[in-house]
């Protein structure tokens, strides 16, 4: 958190000291803590004994805070109970085990034996034992003692007590933010407090003046005031004055983290409002979950960017029992580690319970609540307070700059689980800056941005870029520390060390790595361009740095020789292990000068996305699908052609009429199913003493019958029994033995080009109405046309006829 330049420097120094080795952390009184080597020290966790915890190397920054609760007579018992639960939510939901909390009740002092304030919980470290102690002592807020505290509202005394307790810090706590959360339902009321004067008016005016003085003291001590009022009797101007009168520093440059007052309608709203206020004050975020009465499953979502958090359960009744399940549906322990996370439950026997989680699995968490009969009437609410403390991955170009040279700094971020942040929405509102310090110049800051403006290459790629010019007076080692500020997000502020380069570079190197998508087991190509201005060759080493946990990468070659006085280009490859996890590949590649203590010459990010290898279907689905569609289309076309052809050849509905000298003797209609393959077989029966008739023939007898056939083009052909097939025109008689046959319902044949001349058929006509000329053939005769007539033996002319309707070669052959 960025509070002041001095505070940031002290905090950075504390981080560096913590990384350098174990320390004996003093208690609030300045004595070494138990376990740090102090003989005879009281046991940690004993009631009333200040405690401290070993500072996690990368845990959230600590916070010293006081919850100051109005216990004046204007509050109803239910209001006081809700205030108590709200105070418990803060003490149980704090995400840092190095934070300290105190709870103070206040009213007024109007007669001997009364005090305007009451230390309900002393300043206690919020580690596992401390949170249990806070869960117990905070319940004392619900017990008012009129003999020891008056019914008024003494704001000056409340602020003074809180500031005093928060400023009684141990030396190691210097620079830790100090915050007062004040709950009240009314306004300043010291009219009956003798210490403020002799009459009511004087006391009220003196109380207002005293409050201004106490706020000035808080401001000087670096203590923030965050007032929260509820009800209809709130003096908004007084709450605003308290927020603005205290220290105006904040945990970041974000406007929402600056102290401000807030008012809600009733005490039923203060638990939610107070937790939201608390999250704003410590640069955290709050996720609202679901509510329900036991038994029930409640849910709350923790985003991927969260690295530390607490799930708070406002259960109201200690009889409610809670079980926690991670997003994978697994029950998590109440203490200890599990699947890369660390868990700690507190407040199980109080009205508020909390599960503190380090490195939580992102996603929807399930909270199962149960309660015995008689304890299921109140709704239980779950919320999550979380913070993302990100690891910064920094590159400098050039890695070892010269004095007066412009340097480009690029930063990207990842969680402690190694998840690279690639979604810019998760970093909405984030501001980034960096501080450069070193020998020979005064430290200075510069901004980093992800807006696509030079020097930033692309907006929204979650790579924050900035530039600075190394001062001409720089003489030695350099240190760069990046800072990130956003609601719920802080950076680890790990320093990046570099050295001022020589005025004339002996070696210059440039790395370029392909931005590609690869499969596990694949390779990424890159090139190293190096210029050696020295008179001797240099041995360079390629190394992988800041790899994603679990990634197994190898680079080849590992050593490169930079030839003296020449520029060299060397291709290299980075090979991924077959078991490399899918997703964004973190880390970078660096080129080091082994002859200069592995001085870094250049670095480049591994901007690689690892995806699953394609399946057989992924490679060939287009060809398979296209082929299947083509086969289907061809099959449909063939099917349509067959159906059309079959329908075209179908004789169903065709009428056959037997004539004798133009007189109708018999009619026969081809029914459905009688026209097999476009053919219809029939005979002319002449019963003894009866008229000739047409009869359908099927089966083997069809080979000796007359056959009427329709071709695929719709033409009608008739093959008389024992004769050659001849064309038939619908409605025109054709000779059939001693009779004539007329076919109706057939299709008129389409004219054919280059049709060969027809040859006479076996029958001869007996007369003609129209014609186009003489016809010759086996049945010869004279005439001008062919319309009707009885067929005769082949070659037998009929008077007045022109010859039979002779067949032609195209109609010969088998059916």
Structural key phrases:
disordered N terminus; 13-stranded mixed β-sheet; six-stranded mixed β-sheet; disordered C terminus; alpha+beta; 8 helices; single chain; 815 residues
What does this 3D model show about the protein?
With 815 residues, the chain is of the alpha+beta class. It has eight helices and 42 strands. Strand 4, helix 5 (200-221) and strand 5 (223-230) form a beta-alpha-beta unit.
| Main beta sheet strand tally, sense and closure | 13 strands, mixed
Radius of gyration: 50 Å
Arithmetic mean pLDDT: 81
Q: In DSSP terms, counting alpha (H) and pi (I) runs of 4 or more, how many helices?
A: 8
Q: How many beta strands in the DSSP annotation? A: 42
Rounded to the nearest angstrom, the distance between the terminal CA atoms is 100 Å
Oligomer: single chain
Helix percent band: 10-25%
Shape estimate: elongated
Going by helix content, strand content and strand pairing, the class is alpha+beta
Note poorly predicted spans. Answer: 1-57, 748-815
How large a portion of the residues is in β-strands, by DSSP E?
Answer: 25-35%
């Amino acid at each position: 958190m960025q509070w002041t330049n001095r505070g940031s420097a002290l905090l950075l120094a504390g981080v560096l000291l913590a990384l350098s080795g174990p320390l004996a952390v003093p208690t609030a009184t300045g004595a070494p803590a138990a376990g740090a080597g102090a003989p005879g020290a009281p046991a940690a966790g004993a009631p009333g004994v200040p405690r401290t915890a070993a500072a996690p190397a990368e845990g959230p920054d600590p916070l010293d805070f006081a919850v100051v609760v109005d216990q004046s007579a204007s509050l109803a018992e239910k209001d006081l109970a809700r205030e108590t639960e709200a105070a418990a939510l803060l003490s149980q939901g704090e995400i840092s085990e190095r934070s300290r909390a105190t709870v103070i009740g206040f009213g007024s002092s109007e007669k001997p034996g009364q005090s305007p304030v009451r230390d309900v919980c002393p300043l206690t470290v919020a580690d596992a034992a401390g949170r249990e102690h806070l869960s117990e002592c905070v319940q004392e807020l619900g017990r008012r003692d009129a003999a020891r505290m008056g019914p008024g509202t003494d704001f000056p005394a409340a602020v003074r007590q809180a500031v005093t307790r928060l400023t009684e810090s141990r030396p190691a706590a210097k620079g830790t933010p100090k915050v007062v959360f004040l709950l009240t339902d009314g306004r300043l009321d010291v009219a009956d407090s003798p210490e403020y004067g002799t009459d009511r008016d004087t006391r009220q005016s003196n109380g207002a003046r005293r409050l201004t003085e106490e706020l000035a003291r808080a401001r000087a001590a670096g203590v923030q005031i965050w007032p929260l009022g509820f009800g209809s009797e709130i003096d908004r101007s007084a709450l605003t004055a308290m927020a603005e009168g205290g220290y105006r520093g904040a945990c970041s440059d974000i406007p929402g983290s600056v102290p401000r007052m807030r008012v809600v309608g009733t005490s039923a709203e203060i638990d939610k409002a107070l937790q939201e206020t608390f999250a704003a004050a410590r640069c955290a975020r709050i996720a609202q979950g679901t509510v329900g009465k036991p038994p029930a499953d409640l849910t709350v979502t923790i985003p991927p960017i969260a690295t530390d958090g607490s799930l708070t359960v406002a259960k109201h009744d200690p009889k409610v029992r809670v079980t926690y399940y991670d997003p994978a549906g697994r029950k998590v322990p109440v203490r200890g580690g599990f699947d890369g996370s660390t868990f700690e439950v507190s407040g199980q026997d109080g009205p508020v319970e909390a599960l503190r989680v380090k490195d939580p699995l992102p996603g929807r968490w399930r909270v199962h609540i149960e309660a015995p009969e008689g304890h299921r009437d109140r709704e239980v609410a779950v919320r999550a307070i979380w913070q993302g403390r990100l690891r910064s991955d920094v590159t400098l170009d050039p890695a070892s700059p010269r004095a007066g040279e412009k340097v480009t700094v690029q930063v990207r971020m990842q969680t402690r689980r190694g998840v690279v942040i690639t979604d810019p929405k998760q970093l909405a509102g984030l501001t980034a800056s960096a501080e450069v310090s070193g020998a020979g110049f005064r430290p200075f800051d510069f901004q980093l941005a992800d807006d696509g403006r030079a020097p930033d290459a692309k907006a929204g790629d979650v790579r924050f870029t900035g530039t600075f010019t190394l001062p001409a007076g720089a003489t030695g080692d350099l240190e760069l520390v990046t800072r990130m500020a956003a609601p719920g997000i802080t950076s680890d502020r790990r320093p990046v060390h570099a050295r001022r380069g020589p005025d004339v570079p002996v070696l210059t190197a440039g790395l370029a790595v392909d931005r590609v998508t690869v499969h596990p087991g694949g390779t990424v190509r890159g090139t190293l361009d190096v210029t050696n201005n020295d008179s001797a060759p240099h041995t360079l080493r390629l190394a992988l740095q800041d790899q994603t946990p679990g990634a197994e990468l190898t680079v080849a070659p590992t050593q490169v020789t930079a030839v003296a006085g020449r520029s060299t280009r060397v291709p290299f490859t980075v090979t991924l292990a077959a078991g490399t996890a899918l997703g964004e590949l973190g880390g970078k590649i660096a080129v080091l000068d082994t002859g200069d203590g592995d001085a870094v010459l250049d670095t480049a990010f591994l901007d690689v996305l690892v995806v699953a290898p394609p399946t057989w279907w992924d490679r060939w689905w287009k060809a398979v699908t296209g082929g299947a569609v083509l086969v289907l289309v061809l099959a449909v076309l063939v099917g349509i052609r067959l159906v059309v052809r079959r329908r075209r050849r179908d004789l169903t509905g065709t009428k056959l009429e037997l004539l004798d000298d133009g007189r109708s003797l018999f009619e026969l209609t081809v029914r459905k199913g009688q026209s097999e393959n476009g053919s219809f077989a029939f005979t002319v029966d002449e019963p003894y003493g009866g008229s000739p008739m047409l009869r359908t023939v099927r089966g083997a007898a069809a080979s000796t019958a007359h056959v009427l056939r329709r071709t695929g083009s719709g033409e009608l052909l008739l093959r008389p029994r024992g004769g050659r097939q001849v064309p038939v025109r619908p409605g025109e008689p054709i000779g059939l033995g001693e009779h004539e046959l007329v076919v109706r319902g057939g299709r008129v044949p389409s004219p054919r080009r280059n049709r060969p001349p027809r040859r006479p058929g076996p029958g001869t006509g007996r007369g003609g109405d129209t014609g186009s000329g003489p016809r010759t053939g086996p049945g010869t005769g004279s005439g001008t046309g062919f319309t009707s007539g009885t067929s005769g033996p082949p070659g037998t002319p009929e008077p007045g006829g022109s010859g039979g309707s002779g067949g032609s070669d195209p109609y010969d052959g088998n059916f």
